[in-house]
Amino acid sequence: MDYLTAKVKEYILSEKLPGRGEGVLVAVSGGPDSVCLLRVLVALKEVFSNRIFVAHLNHKLRGAESDADEQFVRKLCRELEVPGIFRKIDTQTFCREKKLSLEEAARMLRYDFFLKTARAKGLAVVATGHNLDDQAETVLMRLLRGTGTRGLAGIRPVSKRQGIRIIRPLLGTGRAEIVHWLKSNRMTSRSDSSNRSMVFTRNRIRKKIMPLLQQESPALSSHLIRLATSLGEIEEYVQAQAVRHFQKAIIEKKDRMIRIRRGSL
């Protein structure tokens, strides 16, 4: 087992991500992060006895490039002998109808597709390729927009939506590590031209704001990640204590009514 695969395995075990034998729907765009995620999870398939499926959403935003991404993922599924679920959707039209930003519309459609697909396949887990650098960028982006403790906790290793667990096995791995691993193993991936566009907030943070701040604080990414980890642990503790005390305050549950001790609040 190579270094990166072993590293992700340890991260999965430490964060209790997919349970042994659980089916996992892997979100694969064709970019380096998602390709790395899929290949590593396939390599660990025997270790965890997991069933693996791939989900790919063609947003139809980049014409022939989007179609080429889809064909790349289809070919990858055949190579790895993993079943894939593919869908095309007109993101621009959805964006106009709902009066959303393109970033927000694409994200909403992606997660809606992943969750519906997971449920249709009887899966309780969706894996995404968020990495360590995404974490630092997310914390900074939320800080700039204004947020509280929960927002500054950044991307969590596990979150839940509509009863489906969203896991992020690469959250302990940096972007440079991922790219180096793919190149070292002669594994190809797709490059999304929209990642170079300064129209999108995350790209401006990644390409302009982070490099500028790193001139003043070279260890900025590490500081942001450490902040997110600490606040994430605090947030989880506070939430657990709130649930525990609330349960102790309950006197009676009847139909849709709950009676609680007023003094306990």
Word description of this protein:
- There is one protein chain.
- It is built from eleven helices and eight strands.
- It has helices spanning 3-15, 32-43, 45-48, 64-80, 91-98, 102-120, 132-145, 149-152, 175-184, 201-216, 220-249; strands spanning 23-27, 51-58, 84-88, 125-127, 158-161, 164-167, 250-254, 257-260.
- It is of the alpha/beta class and 265 residues long.
- Helix 5 (91-98) packs across helix 6 (102-120), helix 7 packs across helix 10 (201-216) and helix 7 crosses helix 11 (220-249).
- The strands form two sheets. A six-stranded mixed beta sheet has the order 3-2-1-4-6-5, with helices on both faces. It has a two-stranded antiparallel ribbon with strand order 7-8.
- Helices cover 55% and strands 14% of the residues.
- It is globular and about 60 Å long.
Integer-rounded radius of gyration: 20 Å
Percentage of residues in helical conformation: 55-70%
Q: Write down how many β-strands occur, each being a DSSP E stretch of 2 or more residues.
A: 8
Distance from first to last alpha carbon: 52 Å
**Relative strand content:** 5-15%
Largest sheet: 6 strands, mixed
The helix/strand order is HEHHEHEHHEHHEEHHHEE
Number of helical elements? 11
Question: Which structural category fits the helices and strands?
Answer: alpha/beta
Main-sheet strand order equals 3-2-1-4-6-5
Mean model confidence by pLDDT: 93
